[in-house]
Sequence to fold (561 residues):
Amino acid sequence: MPLSGFNWLEIVYLVATALFILSLKWLSAPTTARHDVWAGELGMALAIAGTLCERGIINLQWIFIALVLGAVIGIPLGLVQMTAVPQRTALSHAFGACCATLVGTAEFYLRAPNVPKFTMSVLAMEVILGGLTFTGSLMAAGKLQEVLPQRPITYKGQNFVNLGMLAVAVGIAVTLVLHPEHKDLFPGMVGIALVFGVMMIIPIGGADMPTVISLLNSYAGLSAAAMGFVLNSKLLIVAGALDGSSGFILSVIMSKAMNRSFTNVLFGAFGQVQAASAAGTEAKTVRSASAEEAAAILAAASKVIIVPGYGMAVAQAQHKVRELYDILTKKGVDVVFGIHPVAGRMPGHMNVLLAEADVPYDKLLEMDNANSDMPQTDVALVIGANDVTNPAARSDTSSPIYGMPILDVDKARTVMVIKRSMNPGFAGIDNPLYYLDRTLMLFGDAKGFVGDIVRELSGGAHH
Amino acid sequence: MTNDVLINSLFVFMLAAFLGFEVIKRVSPLLHTPLMSLTNALDAIAVVGAIALVGAGRSRLGTVLGTIAVVAAFSNVVSGFLITDRMLKMFKSSRPQK
Fold:
């Protein structure tokens, strides 16, 4: 086993493992979080340097070229705009899974036909999870980057086809465990896993992305842990287990925030249900307001909760929103942000965007805290969020999002919603919030409209 | 793989998974995006497995696949740490300024 040669290398790996755990532990609070990157980096540098120094390493020129190429690809990916972070994350899940799949494949051909049963089982797990995560994450990245159509694509018998493919892949894996000499079956197993990854993401819509990205994160971690079993590397097992449990916890949080189960996210064909329920709505009246009126109401308020959603990210409105926060705070208005766990396209998406725009993090409230403040709030300003504010989730048992925890913006004295038009949002669910007496619709682009409000507010200050 | 090695590995995996749950449960939802990019970078430690594969030079297939794997994993190391660092620098509190 190449990874378990000398004791000193195992000691280096042990130190690296401790540094990895510390770096995750320090992430628990924003005040200590700044240490964590160097701890992780140090652990990584030690582990890589230790491996490179191991006696008997050949092909150093290839390794060197590969490291340089990896850095050349990695640097621009590390410098992307904050709005592109969801697709970057999906892409990095794809790269991680790609590594596990390739190493697993190479290890199989090096060892077959003498592969012990347990090694073959984890090896099969490594390449199946790796393969489906690789193509699945590429699909997710494509949808997020809008290279691929974002709408869920569903067809009759989809779940049957997907489960059938998975069953065949598992069947081949079992055959290989029992008869590892059937080398020719291996490419079939990898191929099915790759196709399954694509098929798995086809029916996923944008609103489900936070859950799916978390799930893919978990799979990528588990495939790395499986790789650790194959290579007998405890460092890899620990890193994979940490990544796997992190992704799993995030998936559970995201699923709960949408009141749905994993199986529902993956096999639910959510998009179709929504389209059907949206069809039955008749024309109702809404009240709209201009930027001038909105500015006057905001200036007169003493407490404002801003609820951002994916629309804010799409319009790149976070910097204008920060200006609005600044000017209202200066006028003595208490402004906080209510962040729904699934607002945006990945866990924590809104927090990162607002932090990028220099909104202090102690003004970003979790859903429960924001909701307990809501009845004492004068204005709830919804920017580019839709389903996460839909009161039908509380009251309408026929709604596809019934039971989903929401931000109770309708409990604030006045609700203002910035929205392009009355077209139902991405998910296609009608939102009764818009027809309430206390709701004012502010029609326009999020960035432009918030900019107009800021101009009104700063103009008023000069008079 | 002997039974001892297998049992050891399973112990390590179980303990790491429980530790992961305990540590990650405490991460504030505020930092969920950096959490994901950090665990992604840490996960890219798979690069040492890929390096060992290429370095052993046991077959041409191993060298080729391993080299691609090193590229993929190391790009995650670089981009993961870089973006996590950038994100964490953005989180500032309003309190020291007041």
